[in-house]
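Render Cysteine desulfurase, mitochondrial in 3D.
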Amino acid sequence: MLKSTATKSITRLSQVYNVPAATYRACLVSRRFYSPPAAGVKLDDNFSLETHTDIQAAAKAQASARASASGTTPDAVVASGSTAMSHAYQENTGFGTRPIYLDMQATTPTDPRVLDTMLKFYTGLYGNPHSNTHSYGWETNTAVENARAHVAKMINADPKEIIFTSGATESNNMVLKGVPRFYKKTKKHIITTRTEHKCVLEAARAMMKEGFEVTFLNVDDQGLIDLKELEDAIRPDTCLVSVMAVNNEIGVIQPIKEIGAICRKNKIYFHTDAAQAYGKIHIDVNEMNIDLLSISSHKIYGPKGIGAIYVRRRPRVRLEPLLSGGGQERGLRSGTLAPPLVAGFGEAARLMKKEFDNDQAHIKRLSDKLVKGLLSAEHTTLNGSPDHRYPGCVNVSFAYVEGESLLMALRDIALSSGSACTSASLEPSYVLHALGKDDALAHSSIRFGIGRFSTEEEVDYVVKAVSDRVKFLRELSPLWEMVQEGIDLNSIKWSGH
């Protein structure tokens, strides 16, 4: 009976996707699925429509490449991820096939090796790391401290300076609220930028309600702050400067070292939101004079629900904790730690450091190919600085195409039109507005995120699919027709109704 039902389902689905039943059955066996093109869009017959996000296959392929380079065997490279690798795929959800994943700024897939590290803490090693009277607590505490050391090593910090939190949002709130509250009697001024993540901006606005003054620095059309404007904004009662290292929407890298030098000269605490930068660009908290730094695990192929904040000990940075409780984490973040998450976070940090050069080269190569392919179409613009940019984040505006419409047309590719945290809003990106982009261009922007498990075949498919579907949507636009006829849209006086 079950076999008969399965056969009928395969037959029905093969008809839906216009694929022979035998082929569809083979795809099910290999856990790879076909994704149909968007309605009204026809790709070339010789271009594969097979799309998937097969982390297992991608991880093995990269392991083989790296093994060849190092002279080891692929099996040795992936051995640590054997348990998780066997489950590193996603069956058909019932809502269509799994699209190509290019939204790495929202989150990254958990590395199979990270999952393998975590699994034992869900079974045998279940002790509370803060229980110091028996071996169950000692063994998990050892794992926590090992993870803390790995997280610290990535930024050349002391392990004692790493405080585990629930993620970068909590870390940012701890800084933006904790530092001003501690120094509120003498320091009432905060400096940040207009292009920060929402959690920083909202935390800053919350402090304004408590009587603090906040200066929001502008950025130029490249997304970079003016260091002279920063220096001019500093006041005797300034307690904190917060500037993110890598922007989550456009990938722009701010001059962190120069900002740190200015803050140190003026004896002001410098905080950077490094959720998108940690493990992806070079960061040395001592060399860059960073006093506080926020980290998120799920941006570096680690588990969700765990992050950290770096808090300098010499000279000591003081801040008021958000949570009261048992005094864990130097009294700055009370609450029982989750050893599986902490261990996974530590392993993810270790792998980021170990594979830093390989990841950089891989992502840079795919990014260059993606940017070249996307910008080859007319009326496309790369948002943000082309020179001071993390290559894994590519933000492109497609003029005369509405971004949300393009996302709907690209349902076989997982993308974003801005920050994942505010993607439910239909408002144009405030980051692109800060760069001077008008509503039309801000609305037509798409963010592409490339990561460790992205493949060249996926990039080829994306470039082709985006090109075809932008062309299709433009042909539906009366504005595009007017542009083709040589009409200057800025010269038109639109009548209001």
